[in-house]
Amino acid sequence: MSNVLAKKIGQVLQVTLNRPEKKNALTPTMYSELSKALIEAKDNFDIRVVVISGAGSAFTGGNDILDFLNTPPTGADSPVMQFLSVLHDFPKPLIAAVHGNAVGIGTTMLFHCDLVYATADAKLSMPFVSLGLVPEAGSSLLFPRLVGHAIASEIFLTGRDFSGTEAHEMRLVNEIVSDPLEKAMEVAAAIAEQPPTSVINTKALLKSGQHQAVAMVMEAESELFRIALESDEAQIAFMKFLEKKAKG
């Protein structure tokens, strides 16, 4: 069975990260499957909204560390970079349903979603600096614009996690609910009933003020991320992470 499931329900495409035994940790193949699902949704007029969720106990544990080290994203044609590009340019409403851990890209992808629903105890984190890396997915621009420089600096530089409740207070999350997927699908169905061209044009207008700026920041982040990934600093940080994980 695929680690990314795509199921059309009415005019909504439900995309599920389906690797629960690994907390839905993302592999290059999963990034490619996510890109494929979004591209097909973009080109299918009968799909009006996409909802992303995670199977099991987590939204996603972020990148699968071993896969990440074995096949590092060193270029614009890497599966992760292609996914981020598709995500940034996706023209239709994108809704995330978040529970459990949302690590790294599990949090940064939320900045590209139009609506986010989460449980109060969801645990979001962007531990890039802790791993000797830099932020990605345009988060170095989008996060401080959302929460202010001071809070963004604290979270990025310390690597601390924050709850769904705190994310709601930051206005990253629309609403705290007990069943994020149920709420996301309910809202998606309501949006799907709206005039589709009007919906697409409105999303484009909402993003127009910073769309190009985000693309430029993503390109700079990608280059700095690549350089950082090849550094001794990052390699040591990854080894420490793996040792800590092995010890439980």
From TrEMBL:
The cellular component terms of Gene Ontology attached to this UniProt record, alphabetical and capped at eight, are: peroxisome
Q: Where in the cell is it found?
A: Peroxisome
> Which keywords describe this protein according to UniProt?
Isomerase, Peroxisome
Signal peptide span per the entry? none
Checking CDD domains in the record gives: crotonase-like
The primary location reported for this protein is other
Q: Name one GO molecular function term.
A: delta(3)-delta(2)-enoyl-CoA isomerase activity
| Entries under PANTHER family matching the protein | ENOYL-COA DELTA ISOMERASE 2, PTHR43684
Name recorded for this polypeptide = Unannotated protein
Write down the species: freshwater metagenome
